[in-house]
UniProtKB/TrEMBL annotation:
Source organism of this protein record: Phyllobacterium endophyticum
Superkingdom field: Bacteria
Domain Activator of Hsp90 ATPase homologue 1/2-like C-terminal: 24-155
Name listed for the protein in its UniProt record: Polyketide cyclase
Protein family (similarity comment): Belongs to the AHA1 family.
Gene3D superfamilies referenced in this protein's UniProt entry, alphabetically: 3.30.530.20
Matching Pfam families: AHSA1
Length: 158
């Protein structure tokens, strides 16, 4: 039994993304940046693929959708999902899937984001899982970290 558990745990190795960031803003402001489409347009996506479209229906079972546009090639990357958990200023959880060429959703992952207040700042713990390959996970790590760099700059302006 113990060996089976260990094998199952190793099967997920490299396919779960966890990012922790400390933002210089209170949890309510950081949560707002993740839930207000106007704010999301200002930071979602890395610098070379900024968001050009964001919509969301912020309620359990509500859908969200966004498009990232390549500055170099004009490629459009559509993606979306469904909200599963919403606790204002504390937690968000939703599904995430890139659109495939035929417009249908591809591999679905689950994103959970915890916002913890720390002396007027926010410790954000972001987790996305489970990816099909470690390479896909690494690609998302680069993309999300690029977006979070932009979010940090946005929050510094508030």
């Amino acid at each position: 039994m113990m060996a089976k558990t260990k094998i199952e745990a190793n099967a997920s190795a490299g396919r779960v993304l966890t990012i922790t960031r400390l933002f210089n803003a209170p949890p309510a402001l950081v949560f707002d940046a993740f839930s207000d489409p106007k704010r999301m347009l200002q930071w979602l996506g890395p610098r070379d693929y900024p968001a050009s479209y964001v919509e969301n229906d912020l309620r359990i079972g509500g859908k969200w959708r966004a498009c990232l546009d390549s500055k170099a090639s004009g490629e459009k990357l559509w993606h979306g999902g469904v909200y599963r958990e919403i606790v204002p200023a504390e937690r968000l959880a939703f599904t995430f899937a890139w659109d495939q060429a035929d417009g249908r959703p591809g591999l679905q992952t689950i994103v959970s984001i915890d916002f913890e207040g720390k002396n007027g700042k926010t410790l954000m713990t972001f987790q996305q899982s489970e990816f099909d390959t470690p390479e896909t996970c690494d690609g998302h790590r680069m993309g999300w970290n690029g977006a979070f760099d932009r979010l940090e700059e946005l929050l510094a302006q508030d």
